[in-house]
Amino acid sequence: MLAATTSAVPPAASASQEDVHLRTPPASAEFSGEIAESSGSGLTQAVPFSSGNPRIEETRGIMHLYPEEVASSTTLPVGRKPLVCVIAVPNHMTYADFCRFCGAFIQRMLEMRIVRTDGADDQYCVIIRFDDQISADGFYQHFNGKRFSSLEGDTCCVRYTIDVQYTGLIEHAQSSVTSSAEQPSCPVCLERLDQDTNGILTTICNHSFHCSCISKWTDSSCPVCRYCQQQPGKSTCAVCGTSENVWICVICGFVGCGRYKEGHAIRHWKDTQHCYSLELETQRVWDYVGDNYVHRLIQSKTDGKLVELNFHCTHADEKYGSCECNVDFGFDEALLNSKLETVVGEYNDLLTSQLDNQRKYYESMLLEIKEDTEKEISEAIKKAVSLKLQKLQIKLDKYIEENKFLEDINENLLKNQEMWKDKVKLLEERERVALKQRDEKIQSLEEQLRDLIMHIESQKVIDEPQDGSISSEVKGGTVLPVEPASSTSNIGSSKHGKKNRRRN
């Protein structure tokens, strides 16, 4: 995250460093004047930082922060200042995005400074000075641990800052007027840069603006020098991924490594016949067919002008090959224009021929791709048809097996039906016999019941007091059994028989 070290800061450290190397950017005079009063006691976290355009000048320094475990939402460090640092802000957040993220606290900020930390190319830090301690504490409690965006996992880490010390200024090239001169007014609104009325934001390239003005700038580059905090990544080989000795094809844009690495650029030439390749480090063009450099002009890194590659003057700079001799500039300009026209014509002819070869190459590639595609389609169709047939055959076998199973079940059911029919007939016969036996038994019981009733009635008649002669006769007689009568005619004969028996 940050290349930070824990060290003890003596009270006299800031003074000694400022006397030797300090060269504070003009826009941050008030900013550095107040924060130079370091407490200088106890353990702090020293984080080296830098700012400025690395191609022109670069300001370096060290900011001393309170450790993360010292401050919390409930316990704040004693002796803190209204100075905080937001570390590890992702590079995709522009200045306007960060100002919108701060919200209402932007009105309580006197100055913001964007700096970069060593070893963190995709992040930057923001040093913020508030107008009072209450605003600084509120900003810390509200934003510490809060996510920058609901769609991403980056969180805001706010740390209280003890001191910011500038250790030196490194000049890489001749400084321009816009980068070194003091900016008394905002380049956007042309109003005076006054901290009392509006907060000041100093970009990573040391240009200052009003926070309200820079918040309307949606681009990630600086409005003055166009330096972008999101530096483009290094080009790498499309095959092996190396970033050293990288060449790019001027015809199709393929990026490959040189012959001293894996030689993927040469392989691309052999495969496509694109013979011209540009070395990204030196901006020189190599011809693989002629096996030499074919460029005529290159761009100067100092002033951006086109100069001849091998042109050298006794008064010229040994590194860039340009001079400022008193010559006829009109003649040189005409000569240069004629050379440019010749180069442009040659390049157009060369580009036309290379594009024609490129067209033929891509047509052959398209034909091969078409043939391969048709072959793959036919194979895929055959494979799909065979797979479909296999699935259908599996389903057919399954249905045949199910049909056989159902036929077996039907046959068994038919057999069971005949068996149950026989069982039903047998049960019906048994029921008929049982009913017949029951009827016969009932009839027998009824006859016995009648005989019993008749016996009881005759006994009652005998027991009743009647004529003595009759009773004596009856008592001396015997009762004979009578056969059952099957109809009403038998009833009368049975009654007549009873009378005869009584008489006896």
TrEMBL record:
<dbReference type="InterPro" id="IPR047243">
    <property type="entry name" value="RING-H2_BRAP2"/>
</dbReference>
<feature type="compositionally biased region" description="Low complexity">
    <location>
        <begin position="1"/>
        <end position="16"/>
    </location>
</feature>
<feature type="region of interest" description="Disordered">
    <location>
        <begin position="464"/>
        <end position="504"/>
    </location>
</feature>
<keyword id="KW-0479">Metal-binding</keyword>
<dbReference type="GO" id="GO:0005737">
    <property type="term" value="C:cytoplasm"/>
</dbReference>
<keyword id="KW-0863">Zinc-finger</keyword>
<dbReference type="Pfam" id="PF07576">
    <property type="entry name" value="BRAP2"/>
</dbReference>
<dbReference type="InterPro" id="IPR001841">
    <property type="entry name" value="Znf_RING"/>
</dbReference>
<feature type="region of interest" description="Disordered">
    <location>
        <begin position="1"/>
        <end position="52"/>
    </location>
</feature>
<dbReference type="GO" id="GO:0061630">
    <property type="term" value="F:ubiquitin protein ligase activity"/>
</dbReference>
<dbReference type="Pfam" id="PF13639">
    <property type="entry name" value="zf-RING_2"/>
</dbReference>
<dbReference type="InterPro" id="IPR013083">
    <property type="entry name" value="Znf_RING/FYVE/PHD"/>
</dbReference>
<dbReference type="GO" id="GO:0008270">
    <property type="term" value="F:zinc ion binding"/>
</dbReference>
<protein>
    <submittedName>
        <fullName>BRCA1-associated protein isoform X1</fullName>
    </submittedName>
</protein>
<dbReference type="InterPro" id="IPR011422">
    <property type="entry name" value="BRAP2/ETP1_RRM"/>
</dbReference>
<keyword id="KW-0862">Zinc</keyword>
<dbReference type="Pfam" id="PF02148">
    <property type="entry name" value="zf-UBP"/>
</dbReference>
<feature type="compositionally biased region" description="Polar residues">
    <location>
        <begin position="38"/>
        <end position="52"/>
    </location>
</feature>
<dbReference type="InterPro" id="IPR001607">
    <property type="entry name" value="Znf_UBP"/>
</dbReference>
<keyword id="KW-0175">Coiled coil</keyword>
<dbReference type="GO" id="GO:0016567">
    <property type="term" value="P:protein ubiquitination"/>
</dbReference>
<feature type="coiled-coil region">
    <location>
        <begin position="370"/>
        <end position="455"/>
    </location>
</feature>
<feature type="domain" description="RING-type">
    <location>
        <begin position="186"/>
        <end position="226"/>
    </location>
</feature>
<feature type="domain" description="UBP-type">
    <location>
        <begin position="220"/>
        <end position="313"/>
    </location>
</feature>
<feature type="compositionally biased region" description="Basic residues">
    <location>
        <begin position="495"/>
        <end position="504"/>
    </location>
</feature>
<dbReference type="GO" id="GO:0007265">
    <property type="term" value="P:Ras protein signal transduction"/>
</dbReference>
